[in-house]
Amino acid sequence: MDKLIEQIERGFPQKKIVIVGDLVADQFLRGTINRVSREAPVFILRHDNTQTLAGGAGNAAVNVASLRGKAFLVGLIGKDSNGTNLKQVLSDSNVVCDYLVESEKIETTTKVRVLAGQNYAPRQQVIRIDYENPSEIDANLIAKLKENIVSAANDADAIILSDYDYGVANSEIANLCSEIAQKKNIPLLVDSRFRLKEFAGATTATPNQEEVEQILGKNFTEKDCVNLRENLDLQALLITRGNQGMLLIEKDQELKEIEAVGSKEPIDVTGAGDTVIATYALGLASGLSFYESANLANHAGGIVVMKKGTASVSKDELIKSIRSLESKVLGQKH
Fold first, then answer.
1. Cα–Cα distances in Å, from 215 out to 198, 223, 246?
2. C-alpha span between 198 and 9 (Å, rounded)
3. Which residues contact 68 (CB under 8 A, 6 or more apart)?
4. Is the pLDDT of residue 85 over 70?
5. What is the set of active-site residues?
6. Which domains does the chain show, CATH number per domain?
7. Residue 101 host element (H or E)
8. pLDDT digits (tens, 9 = 90+) for 164-192
9. Contact 134, 103 (CB under 8 A)
10. 76, 168 contact by CB (below 8 A)
11. DSSP one-letter code for 96
12. Which end of the chain is more exposed for a tag (fewer CB within 10 A), N or C?
């Protein structure tokens, strides 16, 4: 445990992580239910406030920065109000935004979650409205993204490729990230919502249970997971399973189960995968093993699911969680 805490304290602040992928403006529109409309049998919601947070690859970058790593973000936003708000949130979170590509040709991907409730009552999500770029990203924008990746990756300690299937993490971008990682001998970590099989050859990947089920079926076995790692030519496959913890499948190693940390009843799992891969990347970049890095990521995931909305984990919260578990284990021994 002392080794992990030392790396968080001393190793994380020195590490430069390049995050490449799909940026999302996560908006939370909160309102108070006022009355029932006379136009239709629906509630009228009085708007209280709208908050913009960084989602997708942006959330992974925010988590790297909140853990005191150096987060360099490469992605695409529109020259619109949502893009402006998202960039401001990222900058305020100490994410380096110099390598973002802004374009009038696209609309910033935005997810609006409407949270409604009566006076003095908790707000609950009633609907989500997604705004997505309707057309493919053109060749000029892809070329600019590739140019920025090469520049941003100078002196990088790890690369995260965050694929939410909005077009940035295409084959050209993935191949470039792989080439840079191999040349620099640094880890390439992949988080892909729907296309994990297209990222073979990365260092490691962090799919969740549902994403693995899309590939292997609902009743997949440990042997299936071992075969999946081999087929994807990964050094390690880290499967997150919510309140059931994690499965780590390493090359030439026994499969390891990592028990979930914290409450078995999460408050909000929004963006938890981004927190996991950010922490995992910082661990690997700091010289920790896959297992040690996965354990840190497990703690971070356990913390963030107890927060509402798209959230991040701080260095102090992570250390507190590790020490709390250590004390609990020691208490059980005595």
1. 12, 14, 17
2. 35
3. 12, 13, 315
4. yes
5. 274
6. 2-36+43-328 (3.40.1190.20)
7. strand 101-103
8. 999 999 999 999 999 999 999 999 999 99
9. no
10. yes
11. B
12. C
